[in-house]
Here is the input.
Amino acid sequence: MQATLQRTITDAIFSIFGMADAERTFKHSFIEKNRGKPLFLVRCQNLENITVKDFLGKIPDYLARVSPDATAKTNFYVLGDEKELLIGIVVTGQGKEIPYPLPNIDGAFGRFHDEALRQGICDFDFGVGRTQANFVSDVDEIYEELLRSSLKNLKDNLVRWSWTYFNRANDYFANEEASAVIQPIVYYDPKKATFSVRGGEVFVGGHFYQGYADLMEDIPVDQDRRRIELLILEKLVMACHEAPGLLKFNISPQTLIDTFHSAEKVYRFNQLLHREKINPRNVRLELVEKPYEEKHVKLKDVCQYFWEYGISFAADDFGVKSQSHQIVLDLGEMIKEFKLDPISFKFKPEEDHTKFLDNLAFIDYCVRLADNREAIITAEAVDDFDTLRFLITHQVHYFQSNIFFAKMNISDYKANYANWQGLPEEVVQQIMTEPHLMEEQKQCGNIFETAKRHNLI
Here is the structure.
C-alpha cells in the first residue's frame, strides 16, 4: 500500500506559479476549482541548503511514509520561493468521493522537518493551515483564512514542533465526512388525533463532538468565531443530503449579518442546498438569542436575501422576557416559527396563580401571532403528558422533545422518516403515563420504536 500511495502522489501534478499574476492564478487553481474538498496550505519559510525543486520532490515520499494506509490522489499547487513558499495541497479521489483515511499532511511535514534537520539535509520553518473549501465564502476569504492559520501554526511550531493547534476542530472542518445529528420535530394533528414527524433540528455530532459547545471549547479565543459558525452551518447542510421534511439550523444574528452581507453569498448558499438536493423551502434558519449590531447592513435586509429563495426563519427561546421579540418585529412574515421552552412556564395555578395567568396570556399571544403570520409554535423540552395536553389544548401542535425523540444520526432519520407517521394519541398517552413504559422510552429515545416493541401499533 505504501508503494501505491507513493507512486500516486509522485504522479500528481505540481502546478508551480511564477507569472506576474501568480497569486491570482494560484488562488483560482487551488481554491476555486476545488470547492468542497479538504484544502491544506503549507507555508514554508527560510528554506536553506536545498533547492525548491529538490525540496518539493521529497514531499510525496514523506506523505507515503506517514500515511501507508491512505488511498488518496494528491495535487500540489506551489507559489513563491525559498524565502516564503506556499504549497496548496488538495486530496482527491474518484469522482466526487473523498477517500479515507486522508494523508497526514501535518505529520509528514513534521517528520520531514525533524529528519532533514537532524541529518543535515536542509532547514526550514513551516506551518499548516487547513479548511474545508466552503461554498459560501469567496476565494479571497478562504485564501486569507488559510494564510492566517498557516502563519499562526508556523509561529506555534517555532516554539513547539508538534501539531497541537486546536487539532480536533481543524480535523472536523477539513474532513469531508458528514458528521451531524438531528432531533425530529413531531406534529400533532388535531383532526386525526395522531402524532407524526415533520422534520428536525440539526446539530453538530458524530465521533468528533457531541455538540456545538464541545466544538467551541477547542477553538482558541483569538479565532474568528463567526467564520467557524458559518463552517458548522455548511457541514450540517452537507450532512443532510436528500434529507426529507423541514430542516432547521442554528445561527446567531451577528454571524448572519457578517457572513451573508451580500446577495451573492446567499446565492451560493442556495446553490449548496440544491447540490445536496434540499428544497430551500424546507430550510429554516433558527436565530439564537444573542446580541447583534447593525453597523453597515440591516438584519432584515440580509434575511430578505434568504426569503427570496424560500428560506424562512425561527425565533429561538421565545419567551416573556426574550430579546427575540425585536427580531420578530423586525423580520415580520419571514419568521415562520416561534420556539417556546415550557420549562420556563409553570402551568399549575395553585402554585402561583398570577404567573399562571401571565403564561397563559403569553401563549395565547403567541397563537395569535402565529395565526397572523401563518407560522408555527414549537414547544421544546416537554417532559410529561400533562404539559403536552395543556399545550395541545392551547393550540400548540409542534413538539421537539426527548419525550418523543432523542438526537439521532441523519442516516437513521432519512431511512425511517416515512415510517414515523400517524402514531395515535392514546398510544402516546399510554407510554407517557405508565411508569415502566415511560422509563423505557427515556432509554430508547424513540417513541415509535417503544410503541412497536410493545405491539401498541
Observations:
- The longest helix spans residues 139-159.
